Sequence to fold (533 residues):
Amino acid sequence: MKTILLKTESIEVCYGIIPAVRDLSLEVREGQIVALIGANGAGKSTTLKALAGILHPRQGKIFYKEKEITKLSADRRVPLGITLVPEGRQLFSTLTTKENLRLGAYCYTETEFKEGLGWIYSIFPILKERENQIAGTLSGGEQQMLAFGRAIISKPELLLLDEPSLGLAPLIIKEVYEIIKKIKSTGINIILVEQNIKMAMQVTDYMYVMEAGEMTIQGEPLKVMKDEDIRKAYLG
Amino acid sequence: MVFSASYIFQQIFNGIVLGSIYALLALGMAVIYGILGLINFAHGALITVGAFCFYFLFSVYHWSFILVIILSVALGGLMGFVLEAIGYRKLRGGPGVSLLITSLGIYIFIENAVKLLVSPQPYAFSMPPFLDKIISTFITFRLIDLFIIATTITIMICFGIFVKRNKVGIAMRGISESVETARMVGINVNQVIIWSFIVASAIAALTGFMWGSKYGQISYDMGFMPGVIAFVSIVIGGIGSISGAVLGGFLIGLIQTFSIGFLPPGWTMYRDAIVFALLIIVLLIKPTGIMGRKESI
Fold:
């Protein structure tokens, strides 16, 4: 069995006093793409935000490489190797493509950034063309690539993807999933939150299904898909 | 009334000198506003601190000019650091108005502390004789005027490069767009806020020297009006826009100078009132200021 990269022990995450995620335990092992799936409001994004350090669990613990990181803030988790690509991309829309990437590599020196920039441009050649363009004026697909680029330039070991296909045209969604495979092939582990279960199935090694803030089913994609309820709920 | 060309150019030149000081103050205030959403009224107090630091070290203790300038700027930066750490850091994340009230409190505290330490009397401010040298050609000016303009331009250029090329500078712009996202991508927001206060306050302390040399007199309450006018500059220029704030500063400097130079003699006393009238007009015509973006809903 491969080593565990990240583990949560029955975390409870709340918005104010309302718990959005209850008693959630999950694991990510080296070399995996793990998918969190479920309907709107099931608590997937909330879980991801807790893993990124944007929200903090009220109960339970989060371990990363056997170190507890439950209380660590988001900006401290990035240097450790955990980076989030948020839902809706959240680029710095008044900054240029290159400046967005510079901030993604905030914990690195200028020389290290230059190297990283070359690497990112080799994965996303279009970003080099758009280098000095204001991020807010990029197309939807380009913005998604920039959001990926800004995240992976920090050289994460664990990338958290929050609904990367949301609001994109079907053709671009395919492209996004090609990119996800490409990112995986560079050795980055991924936790993917997705409503588009068919797309998620193509790339993931392990699935967690959430419903109303709790985990219901987990397992390898083919096993999860055999579950009668899941088939009904997601594949019709 | 007819004005000669040299008189008009003289007024423009004077306006640029005064505008330079306002622009530098507005720059610092705009940086802090961009990051914290705070109108830092304490900013004006650092003018006073910088001016008195220069006065004592240079005129009383006769230290060398360059060293005293460096020390005044350093003291300004240090005070920015301390004020942020003890005044503002704990209040962040709370209601914006508590930061605003704290900044007013800090202004009042520093003004009165200076009053206690140095007496309420104004002091005659002296600068090195070479800066006092008068040059008379087409227009008449002192070397200090050139020093003010040149220093301002240098600071503006350096700052422009800093926010375009340096990661902390880019982060300042990123944070003013979204603190949340900045944290998420791994920016140490605290560190950037601290640097903003240090840079803005150091510049404010330097303008203390400029103000003192220009008017030849300093007092414990000298920072109040320039501080308020810097605030007006960023509103006129467009809140949230640093270049707007700088533009606003120059604009007010010119208008104040013109209101003294071109209006009948009795109008001089209205020079501050004219600034606020301008503010009202701008707010009526374009509430977001000259270079302000439309608020997104």
Notes: The longest strand of chain B covers residues 134-136. Chain B touches chain A through 17 residues (CB under 8 Å).
